[in-house]
Amino acid sequence: xxxxxxxxxxxxxxxxxxxxxxxxxxxxxxxxxxxxxxxxxxxxxxxxxxxxxxxxxxxxxxxxxxxxxxxxxxxxxxxxxxxxxxxxxxxxxxxxxxxxxxxxxxxxxxxxxxxxxxxxxxxxxxxxxxxxxxxxxxxxxxxxxxxxxxxxxxxxxxxxxxxxxxxxxxxxxxxxxxxxxxxxxxxxxxxxxxxxxxxxxxxxxxxxxxxxxxxxxxxxxxxxxxxxxxxxxxxxxxxxxxxxxxxxxxxxxxxxxxxxxxxxxxxxxxxxxxxxxxxxxxxxxxxxxxxxxxxxxxxxxxxxxxxxxxxxxxxxxxxxxxxxxxxxxxxxxxxxxxxxxxxxxxxxxxxxxxxxxxxxxxxxxxxxxxxxxxxxxxxxxxxxxxxxxxxxxxxxxxxxxxxxxxxxxxxx
Length: 412
Description:
five-stranded antiparallel β-sheet, 2 domains, Neuraminidase, 34 strands
């Protein structure tokens, strides 16, 4: 099973136009490169009419027929990039595909937010954009496929790319920073956890080909990426840490959970799923979370659609939920536990997030596009890795991190 999501960042040279904007009455000789509509307005992206290497975005207001230049964005290289444009009532998203892939989120007030700037990855599918009522979705593309999220004690959210190995930190204020050294040293990020010393533990599957096997655990600290353990895994998926600082790693290839001391020593198989293969279906320990209220480890199994709670004290196993032969199998993946012990799990196969309690599951949000992980951040937020943030069931949920993570605000 492969988790998919796009998340990218970068620094772009953006030139907003104001009083010095080119006259909108001047005839444009070039053709429109992209057109998008939103309530009350139409946006057109076209080449700069004066031969400058730039793309001009113009806005036409439907009611007044007013026409203005919203922004002019320079590009590098001799070839003009392909341009994609999507818009809604809150703003617009423009993408360049060429020598570099770039994503820019703009507001009608002239505000600009660079979201992506990266070289193309080989054999990547073409980028596709879509707009919803309050957010945007990006599918395919070249910059990376983040699929997991974890939250540090200071509120920083970390996510990583399955396609490029890059890891990013998102501050509580929304600032995005790529963690140095990760893009070059990591092959395919599958799991993340923040250790007590502030370092990041990374499950690296090495190869983005889902048919490949193997993987390793790395530690990222002070700009260095080093091996955490030399244990040979078949298919490592997730990692979590208990109150004593011990590290747990799922290996779905063997359907087991490994445990290590904080320094990576004394690695041993700690837990094996009680489920037995049934025909062609084999159990696969996948998602992990630590439940501090019960000093236990949560383990998900997407193949048998089961969620377990394993006591750290004695390794005893309790089945919290088993879907059995019911229709609409959830395909459980990543999990998170809030400080009061509430368990939330990503139901990847149903594109939803469930709350687990009393042997039942309750969908609290749905119609995502690939929600492979969920992480809790105090006081009341769930971060969900997701392709498409525009189709959430609960009306109070408003996407706040376009193109990567949805934010669900609990209790509203």
